[in-house]
Amino acid sequence: MTLPTTAEAVIVGGGVMGCSILYNLAERGLTDTLLLERDVLASGSTNRSQAILRMHYSNEVTARMAWDSLRIFRDFEDIVGSPSGYVRTGYFIIVESGDRRALEENVAMQRAIGIDANVVGVEDVREIAPMMEPQGDEVFAYEPQSGYADPYSVTTGYARRAREMGARVRTESPVTGIEVTGGRVTAVLTQDGRVETHIAVVATGPWSRAFLADVGVSVPLDTVRHQVVMLRRPQDIVPEHPIMGDVVNDFSARPDAGNLTLVGVGEQESVGPDDYNQGVDMPDVERTFQSIVKRMPGMSQALFRGGWSGLFTITPDWHPVLDKVAGIEGLYLAVGFSGHGFKLSPMIGVVMSELITQGQASSVDISMLNLNRFETGELLESRYSMQVLA
Ligand SMILES: Cc1cc2nc3c(=O)[nH]c(=O)nc-3n(C[C@H](O)[C@H](O)[C@H](O)COP(=O)(O)OP(=O)(O)OC[C@H]3O[C@@H](n4cnc5c(N)ncnc54)[C@H](O)[C@@H]3O)c2cc1C
Predict the structure, then answer these.
(1) Do 322 and 297 reside in the same domain of the chain?
(2) Would you say 242 and 91 are in contact if contact means Cβ atoms under 8 Å apart?
(3) What local confidence, expressed as pLDDT, does residue 385 receive?
(4) Pocket test for ligand 1, best of 84, 337, 348, 369 (most atoms within 8 A of CB)
(5) Residue 126 CA, ligand 1 centroid: distance in Å
(6) Same-domain pairing of 299 and 329
(7) Is 205 a domain residue?
(8) Is pLDDT above 90 for 267?
(9) 314 CA distance to ligand 1 middle (Å)
(10) What is the three-class DSSP state of 46?
(11) Handedness of CA 215, 45, 160, 80 (dihedral sign)
(12) Across residues 251-274, what is the average pLDDT?
């Protein structure tokens, strides 16, 4: 298929972020757009996501976006025209007593903005999730509406609907650079030619640091490996369970179809985006197994069913950069989602499309997610050591 020679806006990267932005631009009437994906849609971090949707955060901006996104995931079929795969399971966050205040403050912040979340006691835990074993002096919060969705369905659903509205999508089309002339974007460059445009949106996931460096934009991004261990539950003993963010035992776990439990562990190993072990490490599998059995003793009968690894693209404060680049008119960034981007993706499309078409986001104030914060030191802070709970 020949490449268009012009577009009003070009989006680089066909993960969930690029496709959500493409769809939301079309919703706002900007359909002379082109999304370029070097491989196939959702082939980056999106397809490896554990896809947990929870609202527990230390900062209002992300809690708000997660909550608004949850409602879009829930009503996705009505809004976008295809299913998101949303399954409501409920979500527990579990911390040690030393983190009680952090948890209580986060839940108070959530409740103040209308999120359905509560601090709960051991008796409530036993009633809601009898398969879970509270240990010692722990503190729990519960979100009844949280769950998970299907990243592939969401990404391709957004792309399909955007196309129906007139947007164009080209896969197997790597972008080789962005042309900047006189301080503004003039074209996006590919192996197959040049696409003239005044708006380029970079949503290139783990490849963003190198890609942006070539354009002369420095963003402090690192890529770290996160493993997902897949266990088959003993159906008669643990037929189901809610999602858990277990800070005490350092894992997150969600159920999946086919009686599976997906357990996410580790985010310390910094690796290159094209050269890392995409499987799981057996010592980590053993540790994970012990941790999950501590939390759900019935899982001692679970079977190891394999697993995979993917990349978190992290920033120094584990929050994304949603901004336009000062000094390069027309260049926009949606990068650095730090292991928790999927749950935000519907609202990332909304706020980025507002930023592009109106000059600023109006649905949620994203000003603190600016690029300049790494220079000024005005970083967002987590109340926890588990930084993915940013
Ligand atoms: C193992 C794992 C578990 C996770 N669990 C959760 C979770 O439970 N909940 C949650 O909310 N989030 C989770 N995340 C995070 C979430 O998946 C990501 O934040 C999100 O998918 C990022 O989407 P993206 O579109 O920014 O990046 P990607 O999906 O990586 O998309 C970027 C795309 O850009 C393309 N690209 C790169 N360079 C170019 C180029 N030069 N030209 C054209 N195309 C290019 C790539 O091929 C890729 O398709 C998890 C991530 C991983 C890896």
Answers:
(1) no
(2) yes
(3) 75
(4) 337
(5) 36
(6) no
(7) yes
(8) no
(9) 11
(10) helix
(11) negative
(12) 95
Identify which of 299, 106, 312, 333 has the alpha carbon closest to the alpha carbon of residue 201: 333
Phi, psi torsion values for 158, nearest 5 degrees: -60, -45
CA triple 115-378-98, angle to 5 deg: 55
Task: Tell me which residue range forms the domain holding 255.
Answer: 222-314
Domains held by the chain: number: 3
If you write DSSP's letter for every residue of 145-183 in order, what string do you get?
A: T-EE--HHHHHHHHHHHHHHTT-EEESS--EEEEEEETT
Domain assignment present for residue 122? The answer is yes
Q: Does 74 reside within a domain? A: no
Plot region of 114 (φ>0 → left; ψ -120 to 50 → alpha; else → beta): left
**Are residues 235 and 284 both part of a single domain?**
yes
222 and 314 in contact (C-beta within 8 Å)?
yes
Residues 201 and 235 in one domain: no
Query: Could you report the per-residue pLDDT of 8-56, keeping only the tens digit for each?
Result: 999 999 999 999 999 999 999 999 999 999 999 999 999 999 999 999 9
The residue whose two tokens read 């849609």 is: 41
Q: Is 322 in the pocket of ligand 1 (CB under 6 A)?
A: no
Evaluate if residue 386 carries a pLDDT over 80: no
Task: Please indicate whether residue 49, judged by its CB atom, sits closer than 6 Å to ligand 1.
Answer: yes
Give CA 384 to chain center in angstroms. 19
